Structure formats: structure tokens, C-alpha cells
């Protein structure tokens, strides 16, 4: 089974927990990791990593530096990810559990990239992942969230932006990345608000 077929099958099986029908294309992945420092040993947390399209670009940028933690809830996709990237720490669990564990270990991320679906970013129970990512962020760190451009103005998508703005002082939306299926944008958030 190819990685794309595995990803698409996971989406069709559980569309509430898998954000897209296809993995993100490289131009969108590069936009999502733009805040990643080019020097030093940054810590990167890759949430909703799927089969590794964003992970590929992070690894190219890191070139063996720093620490890269990828979180994927789907066991099949996490297995694919671990086989493709043996140097990446793969956590097969939900994003909330993973981030809480990292916080308990004292980890601070220079970049958290989220490919998580609306269920985790604008949930009906009010348990957004963004406050946890704000706590996880290093002082100069950033959080990026991928989103399909065509649904950006829907009420749920607007709630994602409100949740980010409640947690971070600065939230910027990228230009539409047309070289993705479907076209998408990246929210870039910095400077977590203090509780």
C-alpha cells in the first residue's frame, strides 16, 4: 500500500481525526516550517504528522540538528512515519496527551507545526490544543497551523483563528498556497499570552 493510499484510507475511515484526503504537498509544508531556525539545535514538534510530508521538509531543514518529535494518532500512519524517518521520535498518541507529556518533561519547542483537524483546534468541548502549544513554545518560538483555504471563512475555521488569537499576541495568515490539493493557508502564531 502506498503512503498516499494509506493516508487517504485513514481519512475515509475517520475524517474527523484525519485532516485531509491527501498528504500536504511540499510547497505547503515549506510554508508551514518557515519559522524553523536555520542554526542551532531547535526542538520541533510535528502534530498530526500523518505519513510524513511535513516531517520530510523538517528533516531537510534540520540536517541532523536538534530534536524532532512527530505525533500521529493513527497507528498505521505512525508505523509508516517511523519506518521512513528512524531518526525522528514518533509518538503514537493524541496531540493533547503528547503535548502534556512533553510539558511534564520540561520540553520547550522552537516550532510546533500542526496539521491537526478542526476537532483538535476548534473543538465543541472548548479543549483547543492551542493553549497547550502556547505553554510548550520557547520564548522565541512559533506555532503554525495548516488549513484549507476554501473553508477559512466558515464558522468553525473562524473559531480556529479566534482560538489562536486568544492564546497568542501575534497571528498571521499566509497567502494561499495554490500548489496544494486543495489550496491551503498557514496560520503563524507567536508570543503566547500569559494566563
Automatic annotation (TrEMBL):
Pfam family, one: Methyltransf_25
Family matches, as InterPro entries: Methyltransf_25, SAM-dependent_MTases_sf
Gene Ontology BP annotations: methylation
Domain of life: Bacteria
Domain Methyltransferase residue range list: 44-140
Keywords: Methyltransferase, Transferase
An example Gene Ontology molecular-function term: methyltransferase activity
Protein name: Methyltransferase domain-containing protein
Organism the protein comes from: Actinomycetospora aurantiaca
Amino acid at each position: 500500500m502506498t503512503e498516499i493510499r494509506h493516508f487517504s484510507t485513514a481519512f475515509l475511515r475517520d475524517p474527523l481525526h484525519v485532516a485531509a484526503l491527501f498528504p500536504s504537498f511540499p510547497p505547503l509544508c515549506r510554508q508551514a516550517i518557515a519559522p524553523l531556525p536555520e542554526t542551532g539545535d531547535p526542538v520541533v514538534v510535528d502534530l498530526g504528522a500523518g505519513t510524513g510530508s511535513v516531517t520530510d521538509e523538517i528533516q531537510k531543514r534540520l540536517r541532523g540538528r536538534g530534536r524532532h518529535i512527530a505525533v500521529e494518532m493513527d497507528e498505521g500512519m505512525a508505523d509508516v512515519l517511523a519506518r521512513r524517518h528512524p531518526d525522528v521520535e514518533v509518538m503514537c498518541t493524541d496531540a493533547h496527551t503528547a503535548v502534556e507529556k512533553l510539558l511534564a518533561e520540561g520540553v520547550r519547542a522552537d516550532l510546533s507545526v500542526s496539521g491537526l483537524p478542526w476537532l483538535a483546534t476548534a473543538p465543541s468541548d472548548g479543549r483547543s490544543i492551542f493553549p497547550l502549544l502556547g505553554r510548550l513554545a520557547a520564548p522565541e518560538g512559533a506555532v503554525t497551523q495548516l488549513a484549507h483555504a476554501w473553508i477559512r471563512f466558515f464558522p468553525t475555521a473562524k473559531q480556529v483563528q479566534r482560538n489562536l488569537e486568544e492564546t497568542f499576541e501575534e497571528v498571521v495568515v499566509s497567502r494561499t498556497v495554490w500548489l496544494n490539493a486543495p489550496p491551503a493557508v498557514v496560520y503563524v502564531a507567536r508570543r503566547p499570552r500569559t494566563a
